[in-house]
Design brief:
With 360 residues, the chain is mainly alpha-helical. The protein has one domain. It is 68% helix and 4% strand. It contains 18 helices and two strands. It has a two-stranded antiparallel sheet.
Length: 360
Amino acid sequence: MGTISGSSIANTVTTGALTIPAMKKVGYPAHFAGAVEATSSTGGQITPPILGAAAFIMVEYLEIPLRDILAAALFPALLHYFGIFIMVHLEAKRLGLRGLTAEEMPKLGLVLRQHWLSVIPLGILVYMILTGRTPDFAAVYGIIACVVVGVLNPVNRLKLMDLWDALASGAKNTLAVGAAAATVGIVVGVVTLTGVGFRLGYVVVQTATDMGAVLGQVWPFSMASVAQWSLFLSLVLIAVACIIMGAGIPTTATYIILVAVAAPALAAQQIQPLVSHFFVFYYGVLADITPPVALAAYAAAGIAGGANPFKTGEYRLPSGDRESARAFRLRLLALAVAGGGWVHMVGLRGDAGGGHARHR
């Protein structure tokens, strides 16, 4: 759901109405259930094949095949949800929660027999993209497959009125994406003509270089070169700026703004475009679960009932920060703050499906 909604908050509200009460019923605290839902919903924005519609705009920016972008995004998305799984498992162990009994578990064979048709449209969409078809071509065939499957599905057959409502809902959701796509040229043109992006890049790089020169004179920081500290501090400053600028903005609009403003700073550090675009995109999306704004966490707290929004925001699973940094395999250093305030130093030199962060 989250990968197609284009909004972490909308996904939280939609799916949270089902998942949060279920987690509370099992025994998870309200604030933890809200944090899990908010983080999972935000992860939908970085999950192929849609990436909250940002993938298609990324194709226009980078002028590379969509399958290359999806391949680059797949592993970080898997790491994000693996981090959530680990956190949920550890919390269940800490609280002494039990899993569902054999009687309570859904029967796999029965579910597959009743709903196997629902997998066909997704399979067609992925196949079309992987075989090099254009996103428009794949989307059209995916929609046709959805209609056909809905008509043939004996469990929940698609009615004419349901089809009409689906088309109306799709048209409304297209307006937000279309408006964002239409403003790409305007935003890029303004930033390019005024030089805002390059000036910001110069300020970030120069500030990071000056800070790196100071740190390079102090042991043990002197073990790294000034160039390495410059790259590391530039990434930290840009990540913070992306989280601030992405607060409260839908995914697609966040990506457009951050690419125009923050990506030139990464380009100044000789980082390849694919890596820089994913870096600013990931940290912009994380604004939805990063206090003090954390709109997705606050929406989840409202659904959880009785959960403190600030506690939910602070307790939100921080695997997004950690995994987005780890996904690039950054070779210098990347900070990722885990739940208890731990600081992990992760090797940095990045490769998100083929891009490498080079530094001198």
